[in-house]
Amino acid sequence: MKLQGIVEVLKGEGLLIETNGFDSNLDIIDITFNSKEVKEGYLFICKGEHFKPEYLDEAISNGAVAYMSEKEYEAGSTVCGLIVNSIRKAMAVVASCFYGYPSEKLRIIAFTGTKGK
Hints:
The chain is α/β, with parallel strands linked by helices. The chain has helices spanning 3-12, 53-62, 87-98, and strands at 16-20, 30-32, 42-45, 66-69, 80-84. The N and C termini lie far apart (45 Å).
């Protein structure tokens, strides 16, 4: 998926604040928030109250080409940065888009009976 598609989805949901070093033709191979799982072409998600910039450094050295965060990190100046207003909402939106909106393909069936049995 192109980074441009992710940016458009974030804009559409009102989550994107700014982009740094944006390259619309950049291919994103996969997404993760675990810096140890990052490989070439990944979008790294900086999440959590106790996030340390060292995780972003590790992700970039492992091949991350972009990161998404609620704030800008100096360590991320060498890759594209997507700054969002809510990382939790942005993670859900980006994951759903990236993986082809899997919830829309689910069929929900319910069985009911007397007294909830």
